[in-house]
Structure formats: structure tokens, C-alpha cells
Design brief:
single chain; about 180 residues; alpha+beta; five-stranded antiparallel β-sheet; four-stranded antiparallel β-sheet; 12 strands
Length: about 180
Amino acid sequence: MSKSWYILQTYTGYESKIERSIRLFLEKGELDSNIVTDVRVPIEEVVELKDGKKKVRKDKFLPGYLMLEMDLPEIGWKDTCNKIRHIQGATGFVGTDPNVRPRPITTDEAKNLLMKAGVIKGEKTQRVKTSFTVGDKVKISDGPFASFTGTVKDVKADKEMLSVEVEIFGRPTPVELSFLQVEKI
């Protein structure tokens, strides 16, 4: 047997409650800590720009799902899975029926989810929540062009970058900026 990550589907909004219930079962010995070794609600940091200020908040990036690290035995797996499935708000393991042994997600999928959540070191990034479109008027709030205003000419959402046209010495000049360096006017 080896540890693998499994995805538990829940009612949206019940993720943290179910995580607490599983941790409580582990503390009380109602679930074997050798079988269920970790439980996580996948959360990422989101940077929001409001009134020119950066606000960091934590959002669930898989609402309605929990990650469970388990070392399920060949015999007796059903008792553990049924105990977890019967927690109020839990609906079952993703991809399986209640009387079928759950299937783990791949190691790469687990690694990507855990890196996004910042649990393991790697490419943890903060997602910037914003809604820029071509033609928006923006004020640059950071960097060498701070206090300049311009017009958004291109949005590169995957890189969280904007191409903004500002007027420098009476000529329109394109400037590459991060979403965090500008605010809408």
C-alpha cells in the first residue's frame, strides 16, 4: 500500500466543516490516522485591487471538493470510506460509486493542486482578480510611470500583464505593466 490523494465531493460551503469533522474523527480515534494521513481544502491567495489598495484574500479554487491523503488497505477500505461519506455534507468520492473502492488522482494532479494551494514548494502564485478590457482608461500606480494615465491596448490574462499606451513627451508610447501596477479610472 502507498499513500495517494483522493478527491471527496461535498456540498458547496461545507468543505471546512467536513475537514474539521475528519480531523476530529482522527483525534478521537474514530478514523485510523495510519489510513487517513492528511485532509486539505484547496485554497489559493487572490489579490484584489480596491480603491487603489491591494487586498489579499483566500479563496477555495475547488469549491465543493476536499483532498484526502489516504493509505487505503485492500481489506477494510469500505469502513473508512463509509465513515467519511456519511459526514453531513459529503456526497462521495469523485469518479466512483459508494460500493466501489475510490480511485486516487495521479501524482502529477496532486502535486499541481498542492503547489497551487502553497502546501508544497514550487510555483505558488497569487492570482490577481481584475477585469481589464481593451480600451479601458487606467492610472499607473506603481513603477517608473506612476501617476501617468493611459489606455489599455492589449490584455495578457495568462501572464497578468497589460499593454498600456501612455503619452510621453507628447507621443503615444506602449508600456508593459502588471495588473498590480494599474487601477481603472
